[in-house]
Design a protein that fits this description.
Blueprint: E1 2-6, E2 29-36, E3 39-42, E4 48-58, E5 62-73, E6 81-84, E7 88-92, E8 96-105, E9 113-123, E10 129-132, E11 136-142, H1 157-161, H2 165-170, E12 185-188, E13 195-198, H3 200-209
Parallel strand pairs: 2-10
Antiparallel strand pairs: 1-3, 1-11, 2-4, 4-8, 5-7, 5-9, 6-8, 9-10, 9-11, 12-13
Length: 213
């Protein structure tokens, strides 16, 4: 059985380091927030529908053909998980939208859980390419398999610092000591104290809204 649930504190446009190779090739960014809707359990090899809600706040007047770009952590599971992504034809600044997607997990899937990350891309009315200035993430929990393969556990500090921020904190690293990938900064969500790594510009905008500290 498979279930996707939102990771606490990671549904307001935040970045989990290590989940997604998020290097912008453009300075054209738009800002807002997003949230995965809960996905009910499903049999392996069966497609299940899930939705992502987007609140678009800052950027061009309109974003066209807004679509999600998904990635998985660990990357080794990529060949076992398939997502057919939807899109939004037009997303107007100050509006909300919903993208419907379908996910399928192969029966040979071998881990207990994985992280799914997403950012968004689209164009303005002149055809210029834009990417979202935030990343959203959820944890996908996998029911017990007959012969699960569990990754080895290590206490090596260098290894711990390569983990996503939430995993670093759960491993005993203090929030102020959490390490982010170069070009990203640590931010603490004000509602629950959970950490995330994000672009400085994204953090500044979330600070204005009081979402992070």
């Amino acid at each position: 059985m498979v279930m996707i649930t939102s990771v606490a504190g990671l549904t307001t446009g935040e970045y989990l380091y290590g989940l997604l190779p998020y290097a912008h090739a453009t300075e054209n960014l738009f800002y807002g927030s997003s949230e995965f809707e809960s996905l009910a359990s499903t049999q392996l090899d069966n497609s299940s529908i899930f939705q992502i809600n987007i609140q678009y706040d800052v950027g061009p007047n309109e974003i066209f053909n807004a679509k999600p770009i998904f990635s998985f952590y660990p990357e080794s599971v990529t060949s076992f998980v398939r997502i057919e992504e939807g899109s939004i034809d037009r997303l107007t600044r100050g509006s909300t939208g919903t993208i419907t997607n379908a996910i399928t997990v192969d029966s040979e899937f071998y881990l207990n859980n994985i992280f799914i990350s997403v950012y968004f891309a689209g164009t303005d009315d002149e055809g210029n390419y834009y990417e979202s200035g935030w990343i959203d993430s959820v944890l996908m929990e996998i029911g017990q398999q007959s012969t699960p393969i569990i990754p080895p556990v290590t206490n090596n500090q260098d290894h711990l610092k390569s983990l996503p921020p939430l995993k670093q904190m759960r491993a005993g690293i203090a929030p102020e000591d959490i390490t982010c990938k170069e070009g990203f900064v640590i931010a603490i969500k004000t509602s629950n104290g959970n950490p995330s790594c994000m672009k400085p510009g994204t953090k500044a905008k979330l600070l204005e809204r009081g979402w992070v500290s």
